[in-house]
Amino acid sequence: MPMIVVTGGDSFVPSGMNKVAPAQPLTNSMTEIPGWTADPGSPGSLLSGNALRNQGSRAAATITANLVFSGAQSATTTHQARIFVNGIGVGNTPSVTAAAGTLVATATLPLADGDLVTVQATGNATLSAWNASIQVAGSTVRIA
What we know:
Layout: E1 15-19, E2 24-25, E3 31-32, E4 36-38, E5 46-48, E6 51-53, E7 58-70, E8 78-85, E9 88-92, E10 96-97, E11 101-111, E12 116-123, E13 133-134, E14 140-143
């Protein structure tokens, strides 16, 4: 009896993480954003500390980070976020100058099984205590 064997292909599984309490105050230097939970809408999502663990491999995976911020003491405070894969910066947001808003960073790149995705963010308030905080509601990281 003939047998057909299929190998290779995409073993990739989309995954995500959502910010959980508490909100994370920003500082005047890039700081990793802690406090995440696996997205229940993306079965198989796994975390390792503050990192989303990629599931499978994909030649052109898209990582999207949405970081909702508010509470800056001035509408002239500039905020920025960056995506990291295995500790290497791979995607930045455009700078956003506002007291509140959403930082959206994206990166499309090859990902291997087990790659770790984290996000960092910063503000440039005159005093660090005047920076915004990354909020829980709406702050997500997705790998697709």
